[in-house]
Amino acid sequence: MILARRAEAADEVPVGALLVIDGQVIGDGWNCPIGESDPTAHAEIQALRAGALACENYRLPGSTLYVTLEPCVMCLGAMIHARVDRLVFAAYEPRAGAVVSHMHLLDQQHFNHRIEWLGGILQEESSELLKSFFRRRRAKS
To answer: I need a surface site. Which of 11, 23, 54, 128 has the fewest CB within 10 A?
Structure first.
């Protein structure tokens, strides 16, 4: 949640991600597409980039990505290409969640890599952070 709060402090959607191999954090990230003027600067992409640099490899076998929100299509595609082994996410994303809430992309049989996943870990805490962020944003409008 610390990484999600970094995004929130920058007035970005509060999502954070950690990439772990063998119990060690090799990459982290938080949402920063507005601040970076980069539509791909989601927390998951930031963590994957940092992990790939740390490993000096674009493939990240044996890795687990922990994220505070169910990933979108773009982030799942990057995880598949990076060969992430496991995904653990907190809150479900009914509008754009590509794991289970909306698109079920990891159930597709045509991908050449399978990602094990688990959703709903710390769901209430993450959901409340997101809801309060969007309530404040709407109140400003």
So the answer is: 23
Please write the tens of the pLDDT for every residue from 66-101.
999 999 999 999 999 999 999 999 999 999 999 999
pLDDT cut 70: percent of the chain above it? 100
The answer to whether 44 is a known catalytic residue is yes
pTM over 0.85, yes/no? yes
Rounded alpha-carbon distances, angstroms, from residue 46 to 65, 84, 113, 140 = 11, 14, 21, 28
Distance between CA 40 and CA 2 in Å, rounded? 21
Count the alpha carbons within 13 Å of 23 in the hemisphere toward its beta carbon. Answer: 0
135 vs 89: CA distance, rounded Å: 22
